[in-house]
Structure formats: C-alpha cells, structure tokens
Specification:
The chain has 3 helices and 6 strands. The chain is an alpha+beta fold. The chain has a single domain (2-128), classed as 2-Layer Sandwich (60s Ribosomal Protein L30, Chain: A), CATH 3.30.1330.70. A 4-stranded mixed beta sheet has the order 1-6-4-5. Strands 2-3 form a two-stranded antiparallel ribbon. Strand 2 (15-17) and strand 3 (20-22) form a beta hairpin. Helix 1 crosses helix 3 (84-94). The chain is globular, with a radius of gyration of 16 Å.
C-alpha cells in the first residue's frame, strides 16, 4: 500500500493561457509528490492489466462526538470536495510512465472517500491482475 500524506487534491481542469492550454501548478506539484512516493515506497513497473484501489482520507477542524463514533465504526462518509473521480484521475495520471506505461492498463478501479481523525492522506494499492 502506498501512502501519500498531506492535503488531498483533485485533478484541476486545464486552464487557457496566452500560448494554449496548461495544467495548473498545484496539480502538477501534487502529481510529482505522488510519483515520488510511489517510487520511494514501491518502485515497480506493472505489465498487463492493472487494478487500482484508492482510499481518500479527509479531515476537518472539529468533529462532534457522534461523528467521531461513526468514523470509528466506518459509517461516516465524506461528501466534500475534492470529487473522488478527480482524485482518481490525478493519481492515475501521476503514475503514467512510472507504475505502468499508460493508464489505459487500468481495468478495475475501486475508490472510497472517508473522514479520518488522523492525518489527511491518500492510500492506494496498484497491482497486476
């Protein structure tokens, strides 16, 4: 399992500038963090079809006692930004040419977004199937 600690971001839409479209810098920098953590923690290039399992852990400044209890029972889902699909897209794009040749190798995706009382982070498993 690969763990990337820090504020979770989703893939931002391309922006239009003077010289055409470009990817915003915060998206590029988060992709680089993910790529470096993958290399540091696993560093294997996968061949063939790939399965991707992602869990997004978000936090907020205060939780009620009831919310904390539900988090402990894994029954309190996070429905805030960033959108789950945008985080999936960002992570898969970040791993292109590093974990696999192209993200078209990914044939199965499972993703969750949960609240956590610990540090905000993403955790993912990527494996050949």
């Amino acid at each position: 399992m690969i763990i990337v600690k820090g504020k979770v971001r989703g893939k931002a839409r391309p922006r239009k500038g003077k010289h055409g479209f470009y990817t915003p810098n915060d998206t590029k920098s988060y992709e680089e963090i993910i790529r470096k953590e993958y290399i540091r923690q696993y560093n294997k290039k996968l061949e063939g079809p790939v399965e991707f399992i992602l869990t997004i852990y978000k936090t907020k400044s205060k939780f009620t006692k009831k919310e904390k209890a539900l988090i402990g029972e894994d029954k309190y889902w996070c429905i805030t930004k960033p959108d789950t699909d945008n985080v999936v897209k960002l992570v898969l794009d970040a791993l292109n040419k590093t974990a696999y040749d192209d993200d078209n190798q990914v044939v199965k995706i499972t993703a969750f977004k949960k609240w956590t009382l610990d540090d905000e982070r993403i955790e993912f498993i990527i494996q050949e199937i």
